[in-house]
């Protein structure tokens, strides 16, 4: 650099490494201590990535009348802001970052006979998927849970928490694996206590981003005692077929602990609705002659369940199939049932719904649009009165759709609707999914076993 002056301007160095999100765009700063460069000044800007084995030409600009150069690996991904160069902003815009983009970048600037350079370090990070907690089954007298998540970078930390957010002191079996893509997958297992009500959380932390993801599961002590009694019969080694059946049963029904036997109340159903067996209903399109009792909805195709809840935790599922429209949730015992009704928590309705085949909404005071992947055909609804929450799930894809906070006094009724009567008639039914009970059976290899029989030695 003989003959070049280095004191006229200075490039302002970043105080810390630049942290970018893996797969997203990032800006590597290179700003001069000037906001105006004369147009007549000759200018060169080079960005070089210093790898141990090579120096990569990420982007080189030699002035308006000379061609730029760039390594093929960065063609179309690394750019300079042409309009900002004259303002002393030589920053590099790096698009769709890869793990291989990490490292030390040197920003070299020539302005006439002036020269300076600065090193900018880029580190990348990624927050993985929300942890999924699965009920594997029973091990000894405890409940085996697994927590899984993927897409983390750099290597994260995983913790199990108990009530009140305290780190669980008992040992967990945690494996963090690097994938071929270079990011990390987390799998962690614990055996949690049974016989008492308690909450367990799985938390995964990216310390670089100072970000975390957490999922929770509530374990009901009362029903655990019943299920553990079943397990005692399963693990005596005498009935292998029953063991396999119950293992499948536990994997498929993680909310069995809180299953509610929800039955529709025909006395609340709008006259256009036909209610069958207390579990199925549809819009006939015609007004039936039914008593106009106090409980009945008269302006909207709504119906409530007979059961109401004021405490505890309750879960039910509704098969929506290919219906073009529907609404599901809970309604307050004090909510209006006559005349025009606007579905919102302020009016005593906590509801999500589908409009026009593909638009999902939470019926908040101003509707909240829900980004839903695919088309859910079965909706799970979990009412947690102690926590004051109502959660909706896409059952088959094991995804949470939305959570309401509920703060109300009085009773709540499961709520169902076939959607707006002003829209095109959709006569497809809504069905409340049946849940296994003590006197029900599970099937394995074409053979049936009664659940209560499984508890027998």
TrEMBL record:
Alphabetized SUPFAM superfamilies for the sequence: Concanavalin A-like lectins/glucanases, Immunoglobulin
PROSITE patterns: B302_SPRY, IG_LIKE
Intracellular or extracellular location(s): Membrane
Pfam families referenced in this protein's UniProt entry, alphabetically: C2-set_3, PRY, SPRY, V-set
Gene Ontology MF term list: signaling receptor binding
Keyword presence, ATP-binding: no
Gene Ontology biological process terms in this record: regulation of cytokine production; regulation of leukocyte cell-cell adhesion; regulation of T cell activation; T cell activation; T cell receptor signaling pathway
Domain Ig-like as annotated: residue spans: 13-109
Signal peptide: none
Listed GO CC annotations: external side of plasma membrane
Superkingdom of source: Eukaryota
Keyword Flavoprotein (UniProt): no
Membrane topology: Single-pass type I membrane protein
InterPro entries: B30.2/SPRY, B30.2/SPRY_sf, BTN3A2-like_Ig-C, Butyrophylin_SPRY, ConA-like_dom_sf, Ig-like_dom, Ig-like_dom_sf, Ig-like_fold
Swiss-Prot/TrEMBL keywords: Disulfide bond, Glycoprotein, Immunoglobulin domain, Membrane, Neurotoxin, Signal, Toxin, Transmembrane, Transmembrane helix
Domain called B30.2/SPRY: residue spans: 242-430
Family designation: Belongs to the immunoglobulin superfamily. BTN/MOG family.
Record's function text: Neurotoxin that produces dose-dependent hypolocomotion and hyperalgesia in mice. May directly act on the central nervous system, as it is 6500-fold more potent when administered intracerebroventricularly than intraperitoneal.
Record's protein name: Butyrophilin subfamily 1 member A1
UniProt source species: Podarcis muralis (Wall lizard)
């Amino acid at each position: 650099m003989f003959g070049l002056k280095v004191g006229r301007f200075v490039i302002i160095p970043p105080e810390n490494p630049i942290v970018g999100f893996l797969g997203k765009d990032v800006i590597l700063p290179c700003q001069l201590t000037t906001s105006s460069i004369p147009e007549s000044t000759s200018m060169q800007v080079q960005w070089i990535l210093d790898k141990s084995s090579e120096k990569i030409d990420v982007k080189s600009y030699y002035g308006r009348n000379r061609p730029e150069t760039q390594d093929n690996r960065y063609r179309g991904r690394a750019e300079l802001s042409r309009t900002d160069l004259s303002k002393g902003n030589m920053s590099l815009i790096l698009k769709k970052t890869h793990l291989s983009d990490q490292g030390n970048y040197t920003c070299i600037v020539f302005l006439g006979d002036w020269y300076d350079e600065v090193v900018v370090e880029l580190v990348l990070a990624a927050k993985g998927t929300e942890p999924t907690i699965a009920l594997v089954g029973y091990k000894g007298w405890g409940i085996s849970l697994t927590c899984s998540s993927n897409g983390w970078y750099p290597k994260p930390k995983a913790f199990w928490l108990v009530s009140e957010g305290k780190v669980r002191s008992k040992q967990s079996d945690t494996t963090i694996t690097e994938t071929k893509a270079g990011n990390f997958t987390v799998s962690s297992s614990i055996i949690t206590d049974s016989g008492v009500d308690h909450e367990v959380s799985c938390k995964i932390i990216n310390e670089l981003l100072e970000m975390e993801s957490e999922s929770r599961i509530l374990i009901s002590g009362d029903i655990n005692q019943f299920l553990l009694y079943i397990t005692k019969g399963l693990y005596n080694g005498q009935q292998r077929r029953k063991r396999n059946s119950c293992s499948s049963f536990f994997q498929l029904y993680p909310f069995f602990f809180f299953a509610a036997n929800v039955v529709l109340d025909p006395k609340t159903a709008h006259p256009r609705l036909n209610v069958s067996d207390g579990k199925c209903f549809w819009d006939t399109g015609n007004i039936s002659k039914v008593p106009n009792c106090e409980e009945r909805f008269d302006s909207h195709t709504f119906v409530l369940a007979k059961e109401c809840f004021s405490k505890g935790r309750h879960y039910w599922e509704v098969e929506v199939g290919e219906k073009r429209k529907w609404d599901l949730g809970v309604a307050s015992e004090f909510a209006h049932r006559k005349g025009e009704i606007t579905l919102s928590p302020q009016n005593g309705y906590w509801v999500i719904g589908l409009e026009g085949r593909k638009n999902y909404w939470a019926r908040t005071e101003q509707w909240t649009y829900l980004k839903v992947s695919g088309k859910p055909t079965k909706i799970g609804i979990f009412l947690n009165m102690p926590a004051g929450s109502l959660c909706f799930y896409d059952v088959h894809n094991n995804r949470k759709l939305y959570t309401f906070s509920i703060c109300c006094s009085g009773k709540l009724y499961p709520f169902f609707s076939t959607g707006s009567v002003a829209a095109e008639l959709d006569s497809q039914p809504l069905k409340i999914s049946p849940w296994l009970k003590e006197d029900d059976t599970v099937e394995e290899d074409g053979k049936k076993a009664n659940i209560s029989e499984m508890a027998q030695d």
